[in-house]
Amino acid sequence: MPEIVVAGAGLGGLLTALALAGDGHHVTVLERDAGAPPGEPLAAWDHWQRRGVAQFRQLFYLLPGFRQLAERELPAVTDALDAVALRHHPLADVTGESSQPDGDIVTVTARRPTVEAAIARLTDTTPGIDVHRGAPIRGLATGDPIAGVPHVTGVVTDHGVRRADLVVDATGRRSPASDWLTAVGARPWPEVAEDSGFVYHSRHFRGPDGRVPALRGPLLQHFGSLSALTLPAEGGTWGVGLITSSRDDQLRALHRVDAWTAVARALTPIAHWVDGDPITGVDVMTRLEDRHRTLCPDRRPLVTGFAPVADSWASTNPTLGRGTTLALLHALALRDTIRAVGLHDPAAFAVAWHDITERDMRPHYDAVVTADRHRIGEIDAAIDGRPYDDADVAWRAYRMLEDTAHLDPELLRGWFRIAGLVATGTEVFSEDGFLRRVARAARRHTHAAPVITRDRLVTLAHTAGTNAAPARGDGPATRTNDRLS
Ligand SMILES: Cc1cc2nc3c(=O)[nH]c(=O)nc-3n(C[C@H](O)[C@H](O)[C@H](O)COP(=O)(O)OP(=O)(O)OC[C@H]3O[C@@H](n4cnc5c(N)ncnc54)[C@H](O)[C@@H]3O)c2cc1C
C-alpha cells in the first residue's frame, strides 16, 4: 500500500488521514505545532495552544452536510463528535415543533478546540495513522522529473527526508506550498485571491446555570448592514459573532466590548445571547480572503506527487460555515481519486486530482464567492439607505426563499438543505412544485420593519460606554488577528 504524508494536522489534514487510512493506506501526519490535544476534548479550550490555526478560538459550527457525509463515510467521526458536541435540528429550532421530519438536517456545534481535539483523539487511535506534532515540514524532496516537471518523493523535516508516494498539503490558508514548489524548481500553482471584505467580531460566553440561550431563529441572521451568528456550544458555553463589511468605518467601534454589547443587545432576536459570563473579549478577524489554486493549468501538471486539500487548495470567507464540510468532501474525493486512478502513474494522478477538484469542489468555491459579493452589495446598499438590486436570478430566488421560508415548513426545509450543503440550490428549486410554493409564499410575505435602523446601529456603536447597559463583566481584552491572508 502507498505511503502518504499529510502536511498539517488541522481538521483538513486529520479528516484526510482518516479517509485514506480507511482504504488501508499508511498515513503519516506531520504538524508544526508541538502541543498535543488534551486527553479529554472538553479541556481543549483552556489547555491546548494552536498557534498554527489563527481561527482556533473563533466561532465554529458544522453544517448538516458535514454530519450527513461523516455518518455515511466516516461514522467514527460522527460518534466522536456526538460524545462532545451539541446537535441541533434547525427546523425544530425555528418552528418550535420537535416532530419535524428533518433527520438529514442536523447542525453540530461545539467550540473548535473541542471538535479538533475529539477528531485528533480519533486519529491517534486509528490503525494506519501516525501523527507527529512539533514536526514542521521545511520543504519538498524530489526525484527524477516526470512528464517534464519535478516529482515530489517526500518532505524535508528537521530529522531528514521522509519518503512518500504522495505528499498531501493540508497546511491551511497560509500554505507555504508556493515557496516549496519554487525551491524545487516547479512553477507554483496559480492563485486567485481577493479580500472577501468581511470583519468578524466574536465573543464566547458561559451561562451561570450551565444552559445555553434558546435559539429563536437560524444561526445566521442578517440585520441590514450587519449579520449575527449565534452558536450554542458544549459545556454551557456559546459564541456570538457580529459580522460587518471591512469598508464600514462607522461600525469599526465594534471591536470595543461596550460598543459590541450595546449593538448585540439592540438586536432583539439575539439580545438574550449576551446574558452570560464572557469568557473572551471581542476577537476581531479581518482580511479573510477568498483564494483558490489551479492545479493543472491547461490540464498539464506543474508538479507530481504533491496534492493540496482543504484550505490549502481553496479558502473562503467563513460566514456560511462551509470550510470543514468542504474539507471533508475534498478528503473523500482524494480517497476516491486514489481508488480510481492509483498512484503508480503520478502524472495521470495529478491531472485526475485537478479534474475532480475542478468538477466537484470548484462550484462550491464559486458559490461562496458569489454569495460574498452579494452580501457585501447588500451591506453597501444598507449603508447608503437604498434597496439592493441585482440581476442575478439565482441569487434573487435564494433571498426570496430565505425571506419567505418561515411561512411554509417545506420552504424552510428546502432553505436549510441548501444552506447546510445537503443539496444544491438547483436540486431544491427543481423539485416538483417548489418554485410555485416560493411564489405563493412571496405573495403572502409582507416586509416587516427592520429590527434595527442603520442610524440606530451607528449611534449605538458610537455612544456605547456612555449610555449603554454594561456587559456582565468585560471579559478579557480585545484580540485582533489580521494575518490570515
Ligand atoms: C474565522 C474563521 C472561522 C471559521 N469558521 C468555520 C465554521 O464555523 N465552520 C467550518 O466548517 N469552517 C470554518 N472555518 C474554516 C475551517 O477552519 C477550515 O476550512 C477547516 O478547518 C480546514 O482547515 P485546514 O485543516 O485546511 O487548515 P488549518 O486548520 O489552518 O490547519 C493547517 C495546519 O497546518 C499546520 N502547518 C502549517 N504549516 C506547516 C508546516 N510547514 N509543517 C507542518 N504543519 C504545518 C498548521 O499548524 C495547522 O495545524 C473558519 C475559518 C475561519 C478563518
TrEMBL record:
InterPro entries: FAD/NAD-bd_sf. Residues 464-485 are annotated as: Disordered. Gene3D superfamilies: FAD/NAD(P)-binding domain (3.50.50.60). This is FAD-dependent oxidoreductase.
